[in-house]
Request: fold
Amino acid sequence: QVQVMESGGGLVQPGGSLRLSCTASGLTFDDVPMGWFRQVPGKEREEIACISKDGEGTYISSSVEGRAAISRDNAKNTLYLEINSLKPEDTATYYCAAGEGWFLPCKPTKYNHRGQGTQVTVSS
Reply:
């Protein structure tokens, strides 16, 4: 059974930074692409970033481009997302998810095995 768990969310002031982590079990971590997505109530889940199995390929969405980086440590079965210069509009529940095959397109429908999410609130 695939289990994915996010951590690292919380309350951050505008302009601050955050590092989210995600661990996955029940799968061969270095054999799956991974992604970060976020959702606010009443809106569709939005892709943030995705990364290939070996970490060599990455995709960053335009909504966080220049402010975010995705990385993975396959030895630790862990995925990371760092976001800088946080804005109130970054407030959302952030999900980590495992996909299949090639890491693109970075779309929620391609990444089916997701965790419960971690809340990120950007507010002063």
Summary: The first strand starts at residue 3 and ends at 7.
